[in-house]
Protein backbone atom coordinates (compact mmCIF):
# COMPACT_ATOMS: atom_id res chain seq x y z
CA UNK A 1 0.00 0.00 0.00
CA UNK A 2 1.41 3.35 -1.00
CA UNK A 3 0.91 6.03 1.64
CA UNK A 4 0.15 9.59 0.68
CA UNK A 5 3.11 11.83 1.41
CA UNK A 6 3.07 14.92 3.53
CA UNK A 7 6.11 16.70 4.96
CA UNK A 8 6.64 15.75 8.59
CA UNK A 9 9.04 18.57 9.45
CA UNK A 10 11.11 21.37 7.93
CA UNK A 11 11.23 21.29 4.14
CA UNK A 12 15.02 21.70 4.14
CA UNK A 13 15.65 18.73 6.43
CA UNK A 14 16.03 15.36 4.71
CA UNK A 15 14.62 13.68 7.85
CA UNK A 16 11.21 15.17 6.94
CA UNK A 17 11.06 12.96 3.83
CA UNK A 18 10.10 9.28 3.40
CA UNK A 19 12.63 6.53 4.01
CA UNK A 20 12.96 5.78 0.28
CA UNK A 21 13.89 9.41 -0.42
CA UNK A 22 16.48 9.49 2.33
CA UNK A 23 18.02 6.27 0.96
CA UNK A 24 17.98 7.64 -2.61
CA UNK A 25 19.76 10.83 -1.54
CA UNK A 26 22.34 8.84 0.44
CA UNK A 27 22.90 6.44 -2.48
CA UNK A 28 23.66 9.33 -4.84
CA UNK A 29 25.82 11.31 -2.43
CA UNK A 30 29.10 10.08 -3.94
CA UNK A 31 28.12 11.29 -7.42
CA UNK A 32 27.05 14.67 -6.04
CA UNK A 33 30.29 14.93 -4.07
CA UNK A 34 32.26 14.38 -7.31
CA UNK A 35 30.74 17.63 -8.62
CA UNK A 36 31.39 19.56 -5.42
CA UNK A 37 35.04 18.49 -5.39
CA UNK A 38 35.57 19.12 -9.11
CA UNK A 39 38.84 20.83 -10.04
CA UNK A 40 36.86 23.56 -11.83
CA UNK A 41 35.87 25.20 -8.55
CA UNK A 42 39.27 25.04 -6.85
CA UNK A 43 40.78 26.70 -9.94
CA UNK A 44 38.08 29.39 -9.91
CA UNK A 45 38.50 29.99 -6.18
CA UNK A 46 42.26 30.33 -6.59
CA UNK A 47 41.67 32.56 -9.63
CA UNK A 48 43.95 30.29 -11.65
CA UNK A 49 41.46 29.16 -14.31
CA UNK A 50 43.01 30.10 -17.65
CA UNK A 51 41.14 32.15 -20.24
CA UNK A 52 40.58 29.20 -22.58
CA UNK A 53 39.05 26.98 -19.90
CA UNK A 54 36.92 29.87 -18.67
CA UNK A 55 35.61 30.20 -22.21
CA UNK A 56 34.94 26.46 -22.45
CA UNK A 57 33.00 26.61 -19.19
CA UNK A 58 30.88 29.62 -20.12
CA UNK A 59 30.11 28.31 -23.61
CA UNK A 60 29.80 24.63 -22.63
CA UNK A 61 27.35 25.11 -19.74
CA UNK A 62 25.32 27.87 -21.45
CA UNK A 63 22.86 25.55 -23.26
CA UNK A 64 21.66 24.16 -19.91
CA UNK A 65 21.18 27.68 -18.56
CA UNK A 66 19.38 28.86 -21.68
CA UNK A 67 17.14 25.79 -21.87
CA UNK A 68 16.31 25.44 -18.18
CA UNK A 69 12.87 27.12 -18.43
CA UNK A 70 12.32 24.90 -21.49
CA UNK A 71 12.96 21.77 -19.43
CA UNK A 72 10.45 23.05 -16.88
CA UNK A 73 7.91 23.71 -19.59
CA UNK A 74 8.26 20.11 -20.77
CA UNK A 75 7.37 19.08 -17.22
CA UNK A 76 4.49 21.55 -17.07
CA UNK A 77 2.97 19.98 -20.19
CA UNK A 78 2.74 16.64 -18.36
CA UNK A 79 0.68 17.96 -15.45
CA UNK A 80 -3.10 17.69 -15.33
CA UNK A 81 -4.91 19.88 -12.86
CA UNK A 82 -7.06 17.90 -10.44
CA UNK A 83 -5.52 14.53 -11.28
CA UNK A 84 -3.56 14.22 -8.04
CA UNK A 85 -2.15 16.41 -5.26
CA UNK A 86 1.28 15.93 -6.85
CA UNK A 87 0.05 17.18 -10.24
CA UNK A 88 -1.52 20.25 -8.65
CA UNK A 89 1.58 21.04 -6.63
CA UNK A 90 3.88 20.55 -9.65
CA UNK A 91 1.69 22.68 -11.91
CA UNK A 92 1.50 25.59 -9.48
CA UNK A 93 5.24 25.44 -8.72
CA UNK A 94 6.33 25.17 -12.36
CA UNK A 95 4.15 28.05 -13.53
CA UNK A 96 5.56 30.26 -10.78
CA UNK A 97 9.20 29.22 -11.18
CA UNK A 98 9.50 29.35 -14.95
CA UNK A 99 8.98 33.05 -14.41
CA UNK A 100 11.70 33.14 -11.76
CA UNK A 101 14.15 31.75 -14.34
CA UNK A 102 13.35 34.67 -16.63
CA UNK A 103 16.48 36.72 -15.95
CA UNK A 104 18.93 33.95 -15.22
CA UNK A 105 20.15 33.56 -18.80
CA UNK A 106 20.97 37.26 -18.88
CA UNK A 107 22.81 36.97 -15.55
CA UNK A 108 24.90 34.11 -16.97
CA UNK A 109 25.90 36.31 -19.90
CA UNK A 110 26.87 39.04 -17.43
CA UNK A 111 29.01 36.57 -15.50
CA UNK A 112 30.70 35.40 -18.71
CA UNK A 113 31.35 38.95 -19.80
CA UNK A 114 32.83 39.84 -16.43
CA UNK A 115 35.07 36.75 -16.67
CA UNK A 116 36.28 37.88 -20.09
CA UNK A 117 34.01 35.85 -22.39
CA UNK A 118 31.92 38.00 -24.68
CA UNK A 119 28.18 37.62 -25.12
CA UNK A 120 28.73 36.84 -28.82
CA UNK A 121 31.14 34.06 -27.89
CA UNK A 122 28.64 32.46 -25.45
CA UNK A 123 25.73 32.78 -27.88
CA UNK A 124 27.54 31.65 -30.99
CA UNK A 125 30.72 29.82 -29.95
CA UNK A 126 31.03 26.09 -30.41
CA UNK A 127 30.86 24.21 -27.09
CA UNK A 128 33.79 21.88 -26.28
CA UNK A 129 33.46 18.39 -27.69
CA UNK A 130 31.47 16.10 -25.38
CA UNK A 131 30.41 18.96 -23.13
CA UNK A 132 26.73 18.65 -24.01
CA UNK A 133 26.15 15.54 -21.87
CA UNK A 134 24.13 17.43 -19.27
CA UNK A 135 22.07 19.46 -21.76
CA UNK A 136 21.20 16.34 -23.76
CA UNK A 137 20.20 14.41 -20.64
CA UNK A 138 18.01 17.23 -19.26
CA UNK A 139 16.30 17.55 -22.62
CA UNK A 140 15.72 13.81 -22.85
CA UNK A 141 14.46 13.18 -19.32
CA UNK A 142 12.06 16.15 -19.24
CA UNK A 143 10.70 15.38 -22.69
CA UNK A 144 10.42 11.62 -22.57
CA UNK A 145 10.29 10.43 -18.99
CA UNK A 146 7.68 10.77 -16.23
CA UNK A 147 6.83 14.05 -14.51
CA UNK A 148 8.48 12.83 -11.29
CA UNK A 149 11.64 11.68 -13.09
CA UNK A 150 12.05 14.95 -14.99
CA UNK A 151 11.61 17.11 -11.91
CA UNK A 152 13.92 14.88 -9.84
CA UNK A 153 16.63 14.98 -12.52
CA UNK A 154 16.53 18.72 -13.23
CA UNK A 155 14.88 20.79 -10.49
CA UNK A 156 16.11 18.58 -7.66
CA UNK A 157 19.45 17.16 -8.83
CA UNK A 158 20.80 19.75 -11.28
CA UNK A 159 19.65 22.75 -9.26
CA UNK A 160 20.73 21.11 -6.00
CA UNK A 161 24.28 20.36 -7.15
CA UNK A 162 24.46 23.79 -8.78
CA UNK A 163 23.57 25.32 -5.41
CA UNK A 164 26.51 23.47 -3.85
CA UNK A 165 29.12 24.65 -6.36
CA UNK A 166 27.71 28.16 -6.73
CA UNK A 167 28.13 28.64 -3.00
CA UNK A 168 31.75 27.47 -3.15
CA UNK A 169 32.64 29.94 -5.89
CA UNK A 170 30.50 32.77 -4.51
CA UNK A 171 32.21 32.42 -1.11
CA UNK A 172 35.63 32.98 -2.66
CA UNK A 173 36.82 36.52 -2.21
CA UNK A 174 39.82 35.72 -4.39
CA UNK A 175 37.50 34.80 -7.23
CA UNK A 176 35.35 37.91 -6.79
CA UNK A 177 38.43 40.10 -6.78
CA UNK A 178 39.72 38.44 -9.94
CA UNK A 179 36.81 39.99 -11.84
CA UNK A 180 37.16 43.60 -13.01
CA UNK A 181 35.67 46.01 -10.49
CA UNK A 182 33.47 47.49 -13.18
CA UNK A 183 30.55 45.12 -13.61
CA UNK A 184 31.71 42.83 -10.79
CA UNK A 185 28.46 43.01 -8.84
CA UNK A 186 26.39 42.19 -11.93
CA UNK A 187 28.93 39.53 -12.85
CA UNK A 188 28.45 37.75 -9.53
CA UNK A 189 24.66 37.97 -9.57
CA UNK A 190 24.09 34.55 -11.15
CA UNK A 191 26.28 32.86 -8.55
CA UNK A 192 24.66 34.80 -5.76
CA UNK A 193 21.17 33.73 -6.82
CA UNK A 194 22.12 30.08 -7.18
CA UNK A 195 24.26 29.70 -4.05
CA UNK A 196 22.59 27.18 -1.76
CA UNK A 197 22.15 29.40 1.34
CA UNK A 198 18.61 30.53 0.70
CA UNK A 199 17.77 28.53 -2.37
CA UNK A 200 14.91 26.24 -1.40
CA UNK A 201 14.09 25.25 -5.00
CA UNK A 202 15.74 21.81 -4.87
CA UNK A 203 13.89 21.03 -1.65
CA UNK A 204 10.60 22.20 -3.14
CA UNK A 205 11.30 19.94 -6.11
CA UNK A 206 12.00 17.01 -3.81
CA UNK A 207 8.70 17.61 -2.02
CA UNK A 208 6.91 17.54 -5.39
CA UNK A 209 8.60 14.27 -6.36
CA UNK A 210 7.52 12.72 -3.06
CA UNK A 211 3.97 14.04 -3.40
CA UNK A 212 3.81 12.51 -6.89
CA UNK A 213 5.24 9.14 -5.84
CA UNK A 214 3.92 8.80 -2.27
CA UNK A 215 5.51 7.59 0.91
CA UNK A 216 6.12 4.03 -0.21
CA UNK A 217 6.26 3.67 -4.00
CA UNK A 218 7.07 0.38 -5.80
CA UNK A 219 10.74 -0.58 -5.79
CA UNK A 220 11.14 -0.16 -9.56
CA UNK A 221 9.88 3.44 -9.41
CA UNK A 222 12.28 4.30 -6.61
CA UNK A 223 15.11 2.66 -8.52
CA UNK A 224 14.26 4.69 -11.61
CA UNK A 225 14.27 8.02 -9.75
CA UNK A 226 17.61 7.08 -8.19
CA UNK A 227 19.01 6.30 -11.66
CA UNK A 228 17.82 9.65 -13.02
CA UNK A 229 19.24 11.67 -10.13
CA UNK A 230 22.56 9.87 -10.37
CA UNK A 231 22.63 10.36 -14.12
CA UNK A 232 22.17 14.12 -13.68
CA UNK A 233 25.16 14.26 -11.33
CA UNK A 234 27.32 12.10 -13.60
CA UNK A 235 26.32 14.12 -16.69
CA UNK A 236 27.22 17.34 -14.90
CA UNK A 237 30.64 15.93 -14.01
CA UNK A 238 31.20 14.86 -17.62
CA UNK A 239 30.24 18.32 -18.87
CA UNK A 240 32.69 19.90 -16.43
CA UNK A 241 35.41 17.40 -17.38
CA UNK A 242 35.06 18.20 -21.07
CA UNK A 243 35.12 21.94 -20.36
CA UNK A 244 38.27 21.40 -18.31
CA UNK A 245 40.01 19.17 -20.89
CA UNK A 246 40.38 22.05 -23.28
CA UNK A 247 40.07 19.83 -26.33
CA UNK A 248 41.85 21.31 -29.30
CA UNK A 249 38.78 20.71 -31.46
CA UNK A 250 37.14 23.78 -29.98
CA UNK A 251 37.22 26.71 -32.32
CA UNK A 252 36.72 30.28 -31.36
CA UNK A 253 33.90 32.14 -33.01
CA UNK A 254 36.47 34.39 -34.63
CA UNK A 255 38.26 31.34 -36.11
CA UNK A 256 35.00 30.02 -37.53
CA UNK A 257 34.38 33.29 -39.27
CA UNK A 258 37.88 33.35 -40.74
FE1 LIG B 1 18.38 29.71 -12.56
UniProtKB/TrEMBL annotation:
It comes from the Bacteria. InterPro entries: Haem_Oase-like_multi-hlx. Pfam families: Haem_oxygenas_2. Gene3D superfamilies: Heme oxygenase-like (1.20.910.10). This is Iron-containing redox enzyme family protein. It comes from Luteibacter sahnii. The lineage of its organism: Bacteria, Pseudomonadati, Pseudomonadota, Gammaproteobacteria, Lysobacterales.
Amino acid sequence: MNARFELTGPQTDIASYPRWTQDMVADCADARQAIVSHAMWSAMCAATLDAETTRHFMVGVWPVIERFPGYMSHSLLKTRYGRSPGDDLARRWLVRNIRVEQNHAEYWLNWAESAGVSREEVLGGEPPKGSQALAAWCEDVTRNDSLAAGIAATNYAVEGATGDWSQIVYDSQTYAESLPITGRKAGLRWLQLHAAYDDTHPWEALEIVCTLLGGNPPVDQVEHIRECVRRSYVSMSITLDRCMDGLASVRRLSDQAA
